[in-house]
Amino acid sequence: MFRIGIDVGGTFTDFLLIENGGDNRVYKVITTPENPARGVLYGMKMMAQELGMSTGEFLQNVSTIVHGTTITTNATLTQEGAKTGFITTKGFRDCLNMRRGLREKKYNPKQSPPLPLVPRYLTMVVEERIDCDGQEVIPLHEQGVYEAIDLFKKEQVESVAVSLLFSFFNASHEERIGEILRTNMPDVYITLSSEVLPQVRVYERNSTTALNAYVGPLLDRYLKELHTSLTREGFKGTLLIMQSNGGTMSLELASKFAVNTLLSGPASGPTAGLFYAEPHNNGNIITIDMGGTSFDVCLIKDHAAAVTMEGQIGNYSIATPMIDIHTIGAGGGSIAWIDSGGMLRVGPKSAGALPGPICYGLGGVDPTVTDATLILGYLDPEFFHGGKLKLKAELAHQGIEKLGEKLGLDKVSTADGILKIVLMNMADGVMEVSVKRGYDPREFALVVAGGAGPIHATAIAKVLDIPLIIVPRESSVFCAAGMLLSDLKHDYVRTYNAPLGEHDLAKIKELYQQMQYEALLTLKSEGIPQERVSIFISADLRYIGQFNDVEVPWKGFNLGDTVYLLADAFHHRHESLYGYSMPGSSVEFINLRLTALGVTDKHTLSKYPYSSGDPSPALKGVRAAYFEGKFLETPVYNGLKLQYGNLVTGPGIVEQINTTIIVSPGYRLYCDEYNNYIIQSESFKG
After folding, report:
1. Where are the alpha helices (DSSP H) in 354-485?
2. Does residue 244 contact residue 266 with C-beta atoms inside 8 Å?
3. 183: Cβ–Cβ under 8 A, 6 or more apart, which residues?
4. Cβ(81)–Cβ(214) under 8 Å?
């Protein structure tokens, strides 16, 4: 049987195929933006062909597919989501579109807010009121719901979001509105805030609910089409969808909670990073993933990636838990351009998959990072993508030369300038998650991924003085690998506000029991037996009078014995996050949280016998590559022939079918016992 991880990116769709024995194969196809399912199915057919099977025979032997998708992210960023209606409490019609009334860039008076997800004329109100204790003050006036339905039908809305003022304390009014909507608009996608995010803070809850409604119909259609196509071809296994919290979920839950897939593409990266760093006893790592479109960075401290409840996409707030990943527009397809001041810039705009960089020969006219990389000798035009996509070097030379003429530079200096600029952009991205948060990047290992990441890894490490780099052999499909290592994961939250010391322990236990019951039912519906379920609880706390709250883990369920230890943990956590704490100040509960994991089977790394330090059996040849201001004759190695113990001293180039690893002067590459690559500066003493 086979297991497959799929990561649909902006330029390439990545596949990792794992067989029962643990052997794996890497595949890449160009993403088909107009219909990503086409690219996925093409990849399946390519895998079947290579294995000597028909597509149907192959898919019948696939037990699990874990799929990451950019459908919802792209729909939000391009403003191409569903036509959405919104229902809220009378008197609060404009809360969604007023947001918090703040500009993202407070010193830019010309910055406009994002276009509303729901226009005001499609925002309807109903008379009702639940108070802050969950008691009904004004009954729901159902006539207002029917008036909203009449408008929504007239305007042909595809989706409706419902978020009432205090529904997180008492969802009865929201649930009744949901019943009326589903009865009278059976073909419309319905989202209730009490199901998506039952917690305090009206704008964040409204925004998250509206986003779920905005992208839900598109994801639902895509997943149904994909599942139908796979089933038609013979697939009978389990299809799981990657979430932004670093876990997976079933197809049915993904369709219902589409907002959980926003920015989920890179969320499996930290899981993969820890997997490949574990053999080296390193729980402090920084993962970087550079593909064709973006550069994703995540800092992992003490074996745990940070999780945020304050995410954003396109300046819209998302309050569901998300792996804290910093993304910038720096990829192989990032376009080099000249600004109004005559300065060379790189990104964030990308050439994407089609037309792609100039050297793809698919119609691209804008010079990109990949074009510059080719000119400097880092890429073999005949071996790119395993020879399936031969690069047109002459086109890249023409494009870079034309750009250089505007700058008064020759093409080599222009290409070198492009790489230096994108290098500093990426180094700034790494410092964003490390230095700016109080961490020294020199104390972390750099785990490098993406088709383009290993090309720039030693350059990034040199700028930041990071001594140790880990490049997995499957680095080009890093996130796809992480998906097959991820557990099913579901997050639950209940708002509970009371000062520590005046809390109602029985009520706290009741709320946790509600969440645990819901979690166990959900995981059972996904085929996870109770013995494979792990439950973790935490609480959001803050100093009384403060706005920012901090999530603090709560060890075990002996709540009465440990509740007062939460305050000490909170002070310590607050100190590490904000640089100060106030142990004498009163602390209060804001939210109670529960995370449920459904533990899945995972593959392990295979060990290989020691060969020798001599890498010459893997030598392919020599070519000129640009280092430190000049071209050097550089040995080129076949990465798949390098074995445990082989040592490559820079300058050197290691080529695999889907990525290229540059070993700069002053660095050495070592093939470890798992056939992954360890790159160290010559000054490294570890």
Report:
1. 369-375, 393-407, 411-433, 453-464, 478-483
2. no
3. none
4. yes
What's the rounded mean pLDDT across residues 385-412?
Answer: 92
The CATH architecture that domain 266-310+423-483 belongs to is 2-Layer Sandwich (3.30)
Q: Which helix (H) or strand (E) holds 311?
A: strand 311-313
Instruction: DSSP letter for 368, please.
Output: B
Contact between 683 and 667 under an 8 Å Cβ cutoff? The reply is no
Which parts of 186-250 fold into alpha helices (H)? 193-196, 202-233
Give, in words, the CATH class of 2-75+221-261.
alpha beta
Q: Could you tell me the two tokens for 441?
A: 């990047």
- Nearest residue to 298 via CA among 474, 419, 439, 421: 439
The pLDDT > 70 percentage for the chain reads: 98
The dihedral of CA 398, 402, 403, 405: what is its sign?
positive
Both tokens assigned to 647: 């040592």
Q: Kindly report the number of other CB atoms within 10 A of residue 204's CB atom.
A: 20
Beta carbons within 10 angstroms of residue 662's beta carbon? 26
Residue reference for tokens 């034309």 = 402
Q: Report CA-CA distances (Å) from 465 to 174, 385, 461, 535, 676.
A: 54, 31, 6, 39, 22
Q: Structure tokens of 587?
A: 């602390």
Could you tell me the two tokens for 198?
């039952």
d(CA 248, CA 254): 9
What pLDDT, on a 0 to 100 scale, did the predictor assign at position 474?
Answer: 87
CA–CA separation, 128 vs 124, rounded Å? 13
Count of CA atoms in the C-beta half-sphere (13 A) of 364: 30
Mean of the per-residue pLDDT values for the chain?
Answer: 92
Residues 165 and 129 sit within 8 Å (Cβ to Cβ)? yes
CB 189 within 8 A of CB 217: yes
How many residues belong to the chain? 686
pLDDT above 90 (res 291): no
pLDDT score of 668: 96
Higher pLDDT, 658 or 447: 447
* pLDDT for res 70: 81
Is 395:407 a contact under the CB 8 Å cutoff? no
Q: Report how far residue 168's alpha carbon sits from residue 198's, in angstroms, rounded to the nearest whole number.
A: 4
Q: What are the counts of helices (DSSP H) followed by strands (DSSP E) for the chain? A: 18, 35
**pTM of the predicted model, to two decimals?**
0.88
Residue 166 makes CB contacts below 8 A (sequence gap 6+) with 129, 130, 131, 132, 134
Amino acid 22: pLDDT:
66
Fold topology of 488-598: Dna Ligase; domain 1 (3.30.1490)
- Domain layout of the chain by residue ranges: 2-75+221-261, 266-310+423-483, 488-598, 616-681
Give the separation between CA 569 and CA 573, rounded to whole angstroms. Answer: 6
Token pair belonging to 520: 């166990």
Are the folds of 266-310+423-483 and 488-598 the same? no
CA–CA dist 512, 445 (Å, integer): 38
pLDDT at residue 328 tops 90: no
